[in-house]
């Protein structure tokens, strides 16, 4: 509905075809032409690890395309029964699940995600010493105890998990000593000790003294150099990646750095400032960049458009202009919404209407992308072979303004069924696909928020760097 009244500068769509492996450069016109399909060349560096990771993830019950690319870190899948039987293995998992006021788990996704690694270890006769944090406790805080996790963890593993009341000390050492082959001991919240986040060597040494080797499967905390994620690796060898951590690396680094093309990135969220690094990094990799969420109004204002009372970062207007120029220079097709859903207040019961992005009146704020933008975005995504999504299209916690986000989630589910690699990069995007009920069909859903963002920005993660290098198999 907005095409007739939208200014030419709003719809950033390709205007010419191209014979290169890049889509046409950004163009400030309202012409809509098909985006070109491109080929892909890429294979796993280590087929054995690929099969191992894929089989373990399939046993976890996820679906979708599995374009696994082996990273250069040693994996738990490289360890044999001879390496594991009777050995005490310190496993750092991310069991930071939400609990309600009755201390009941409201979402067990992270527990289920840790199961393949733990099952692999116990099936090979290892003694698993499981460590995690929960919440942000200040010292010993009963409501952040890991005790509520034991029943669900035991159910998923098919064995009775033993729970320690601490994570270091004589009592824990006794429980470790009595642990049978194939047994699992869950340590208490490691963040009850301030030394954990400070990565104090003596504390890390005490944790490491419980075990013979180390497995890091906590992707959600891999961007932090804590005692249980980085410090223990100085005292335990080998130190390897778990299946979940390996899978996160395979998709968020492997599939993004060598994607099937065309490769599209969808970036949303409220502020440009929180996604600067991600956008800049993806501009070097993707063919199509779709922007949504509150950040779009900073881009609109940078083009001289009226945005009413919509969220704008005044100090990022020049940055928005620079990012659009970079997209054009790199041949990336940058798409901004051409219409938006506006509201007279920030509330679920606000009055709303659909207007061209150039027609936001004073006193109104944009809270979602409009129907024409949904169609434009869907048409662009239809041409792709790889899509990564980080950040909602609107205020999706309000049903009235969740239409754009939910439409993108459904479109990606449809594409997954057609063989497109779909990667959901953490945070609110994960909540969106779960709300719509399409999480299971996505190729990969990241369990890490900050860690996902840092990987997408091209940053190194301390918890990954500390692990042993893999010995790649020649093929």
TrEMBL record:
The keyword Transferase applies. Its EC number is 2.7.2.3. InterPro entries: Phosphoglycerate_kinase, Phosphoglycerate_kinase_CS, Phosphoglycerate_kinase_N, Phosphoglycerate_kinase_sf. One of its GO terms (biological process) is glycolytic process. ATP binds at residues 275, 397, 426-429. It is an enzyme of class 2 (transferase). Gene3D superfamilies: Phosphoglycerate kinase, N-terminal domain. It catalyses: (2R)-3-phosphoglycerate + ATP = (2R)-3-phospho-glyceroyl phosphate + ADP. Signal peptide: none annotated. Residues 1-26 are annotated as: Disordered. One of its GO terms (cellular component) is cytosol. It holds the Pfam family PGK. Pathway: Carbohydrate biosynthesis; Calvin cycle. Substrate binds at residues 94-96, 133-136. Keywords: ATP-binding, Kinase, Magnesium, Nucleotide-binding, Transferase. Its cofactor is Mg(2+). Monomer. This is Phosphoglycerate kinase. It comes from Liquidambar formosana (Formosan gum).
């Amino acid at each position: 509905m907005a095409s007739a009244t939208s200014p030419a500068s709003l719809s950033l769509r390709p205007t010419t075809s191209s014979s290169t492996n890049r889509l046409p450069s950004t163009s400030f016109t309202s012409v809509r032409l098909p985006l070109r399909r491109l080929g892909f060349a890429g294979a796993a560096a280590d087929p054995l690890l690929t099969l191992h990771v894929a089989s373990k993830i399939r046993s976890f019950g996820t679906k979708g395309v599995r374009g696994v690319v082996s990273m250069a870190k040693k994996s738990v899948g490289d360890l044999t029964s001879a390496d594991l039987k009777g050995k005490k293995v310190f496993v750092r998992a991310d069991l930071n699940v939400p609990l309600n006021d009755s201390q009941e788990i409201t979402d067990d996704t992270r527990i289920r995600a840790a199961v393949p690694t733990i099952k692999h270890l116990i099936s090979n006769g290892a003694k698993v010493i499981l460590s995690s944090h929960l919440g942000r406790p200040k010292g010993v805080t009963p409501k952040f105890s890991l005790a509520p996790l034991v029943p669900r963890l035991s159910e998923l593993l098919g064995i009775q998990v033993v729970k320690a009341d601490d994570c270091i000390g004589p009592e824990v050492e006794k429980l470790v000593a009595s642990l049978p082959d194939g047994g699992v001991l869950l340590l208490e919240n490691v963040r009850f000790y301030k030394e954990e986040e400070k990565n104090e060597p003596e504390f890390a040494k005490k944790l490491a003294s419980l075990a013979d080797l180390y497995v890091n499967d906590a992707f959600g905390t891999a961007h932090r150099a804590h005692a249980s994620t980085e410090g223990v690796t100085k005292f335990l060898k080998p130190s390897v990646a778990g299946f979940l951590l390996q899978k996160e690396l395979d998709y968020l680094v492997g599939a993004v750095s060598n994607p099937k093309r065309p490769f599209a990135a969808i970036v949303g969220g409220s502020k440009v400032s929180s996604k600067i690094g991600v956008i800049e990094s993806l501009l070097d990799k993707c063919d199509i960049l779709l922007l949504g969420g509150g950040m779009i109004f900073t881009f609109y204002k940078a083009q001289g458009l009226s945005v009413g009372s919509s969220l704008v970062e005044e100090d990022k207007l020049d940055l928005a202009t620079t990012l659009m120029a970079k997209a054009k220079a790199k041949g990336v097709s940058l798409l901004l919404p051409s219409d938006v859903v506006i509201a007279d207040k920030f509330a679920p019961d606000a009055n709303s209407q659909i207007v061209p992005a150039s027609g936001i009146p004073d006193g109104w704020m944009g809270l979602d992308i409009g129907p024409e933008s949904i169609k434009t975005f869907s048409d662009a995504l239809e041409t792709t072979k790889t899509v990564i999504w980080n950040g909602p299209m609107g205020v999706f916690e309000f049903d009235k303004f969740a239409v754009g986000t939910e439409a993108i989630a459904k479109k990606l589910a449809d594409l997954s069924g057609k063989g497109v690699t779909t990667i959901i990069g953490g945070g609110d995007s994960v909540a969106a696909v779960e709300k719509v009920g399409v999480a299971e069909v996505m190729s990969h859903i990241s369990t890490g928020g900050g860690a996902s963002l840092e990987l997408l920005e091209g940053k190194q993660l301390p918890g990954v760097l500390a692990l042993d290098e893999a010995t790649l198999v020649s093929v």
